[in-house]
Amino acid sequence: MRPGSYSYFRLEAERWRARVTYREDVFGRVRAWSRRHEKLAGALRVAPLAALCAILAVPFATNTSPGGGQYVGLASYVGLSVLLLVPLLWPGWPLAAFAAISLVCFGQWLADVDLLPANLSVLVALWAVAYRCSFRWALAAGLVAELGMFMALVSWDAPTFGMFFSGSIFVVTIWLTGLYANTRRRYLEGLEERAERAERERDQQARMAAAAERARIARELHDVVAHNVSVMVVQADGAGFALDSDPEQARQAVRTISKTGRAALAEMRRLVGVLRENEHGDTDYTPQPGLAQLEELICGSAVPARLRVSGVPRELPEGQQLAIYRIVQEALTNALKHGGPDVQAIVEIEYGAPDLVVRVTDDGRGAAAPHSSDGHGLIGMRERVGMYGGAMSAGPRSGGGFEVLARLPMVKAA
Predict the structure, then answer these.
(1) Strand partners, 359
(2) Adjacent-strand bridge partners of 392
(3) Residue 13's closest CA among 200, 208, 205?
């Protein structure tokens, strides 16, 4: 299995899902609850440190200061602890929380106030920065924490290198723990993204397979129609010859035509039902447009256009009339999209001896029009013309504007 392939990412996604299944079962509800109640969850995370501060508030109610610094009473202890703990309730702004706590600690150092249990909040904020922010911000926060620890030790009477080394190990350990959690989080997010990408690629593969199946069904539909119609034509010709000489054989041929027609209709309904995009069962009984609706199309177009008809009009099959209608419709749409402002068009229908010529010209930007790579109008027009054995060309005119020229052999209507 080649790394980077669709199968590789799908296998990795499945392995990741299997590894996290147990953890999701245990902690999934807790995480979901935390996301729904973010503020309450943040308060619960701060609760253990707040409880520790409340328990250790008793020594500060006395008149002795164990650290040798400036003594604070109980009221000042509570106020300073609140200032140090409140920023921890900002989980969405770890940098702001760390900066606020650091400023409070710096003011505490300037006032020569003893260290409090609430000063541990700076380590909690340091972990949050290392977990949620980029490496450069995590590094800056780690250096600030190291500097704060050094300043706190200097304020003591007899700091030693061992004390600084031990404190540094403690700070760096918390910092590295946050970085590891950050890396793990990014790794899991990457796996989730790859899993989603694999699912999207799987859906795309399914759509491609469905499109291929539809093309196969369309070919089957063509084969069914061609075969059954050929049988019906042969039987009809035979019935015509045997109508006077052998009426029984003619009746048998007519029954065969009826049976073949019913079978063809049933097969066509089945295949067309698979190809139908509308899954709600709505059926449109409106007749398909033809040459009779061409004048209405041109009059209702957003592009000012004129219709010119030359030659002797002839009755054409409905399918060919629909093809001509769609060609004119698509050509006018392209003129509106790419012709620029104040564009005008001329639609010409010329009935000749062997062919019918459809020409749509406009006075728009022509070659200066921006190229669009997401359109399939010209391809659809060529397919419609090719279905009747015709030819089509489309491109800018030498004098400016754009021209669509289609030439279709005139087929007699059945």
Answers:
(1) 348, 405
(2) 406
(3) 200
> Locate tokens 């030359």: which residue?
310
As a whole number of angstroms, the distance between CA 256 and CA 235 comes to 7
Q: Among residues 91, 79, 99, 74, which one has the least CA distance to residue 37?
A: 91
Bridge partners, 307 (sequence order):
347
Using DSSP, state whether 103 is helix, strand or coil.
helix
Beta carbons within 8 Å of 411's beta carbon, 6+ residues apart: 316, 317, 320, 388
Of residues 264, 261, 270, 263, the one with CA closest to residue 217? 270
* Residue linked to tokens 């669709």: 6
CA proximity to 116, closest of 100, 127, 101, 128: 101
**CB under 8 Å, gap of 24 or more: what pairs does 387-393 form?**
387/323, 388/319, 388/320, 388/323, 390/355, 392/327
- Find residue 361's DSSP bridge partners: 346, 403
DSSP conformational letter for 227 = H
Q: What is the pLDDT of residues 45-89, one digit of tens each?
A: 777 877 887 777 776 656 554 444 555 677 777 888 888 888 888
Is-contact 358 328, C-beta < 8 A? Answer: yes
Q: Taking a C-beta distance cutoff of 8 angstroms, is the pair 354, 389 a contact? A: no
Contact by Cβ (8 Å): 408, 390: yes
Backbone angles phi, psi at 307, to 5 degrees: -110, 130
What is the spatial distance between Cα 328 and Cα 408, in angstroms, rounded to a whole number? 13
| Low-confidence stretches of the chain (pLDDT beneath 70) | 1-39, 41-42, 59-72, 156-159, 213-214, 217, 220-224, 226-227, 267, 270-287, 366-377, 411-414
Closest CA to 330 of 375, 268, 365, 263: 375
Cα 171 to Cα 53, 106, 167, distances in angstroms: 20, 17, 6
165-185 exposure pattern, b = at least 16 Cβ within 10 A, e = fewer: eebeeebeebbeebbeebeee
Bridge partners for 351 per DSSP? 356
User: What is the distance between the alpha carbons of residues 301 and 68, in angstroms, rounded to a whole number?
Assistant: 90
